[in-house]
Amino acid sequence: MTENNAAATGAVKCAAFWGHDGKALADFYAAALGWKVTQTFGDTAAMISDGATTYVFYTAESFKAPNWPEDELVFHLDLAFADVEAAEQRLVELGATKPAHQPGGKHWTVLLDPSGQPFCISAAGNNG
What we know:
128 residues; alpha/beta; 2,3-Dihydroxybiphenyl 1,2-Dioxygenase, domain 1; 2 domains; four-stranded mixed sheet; 7 strands; 18% helix; VOC_core; VOC family protein; Glyoxalase_6; Glyas_Bleomycin-R_OHBP_Dase
């Protein structure tokens, strides 16, 4: 192994998500995070960013939300907020739903985004 591993070092440039309506999902997460929609791609996709992190959301006509918790998840987001109760209320107003199954106890809350995909919210600084 060489001392210069620059060629083997990478960075995540963007994460991509699929749902029933990519643009609506981008709007949801932009509002949830206080970010901006930075680019749209026709009627089927949109990108959001805070200037450092970027997510792109695509429409997939054959998208099927996982039947959580029965189905294993391939990927999900953990979002942190200073006021989790206020964030939960705001996210539900934006279109999230709260499933009955809540395995996080007092540590995190599971919500489903408008496409039915689970994501978690917790207090900023809470790693578990």
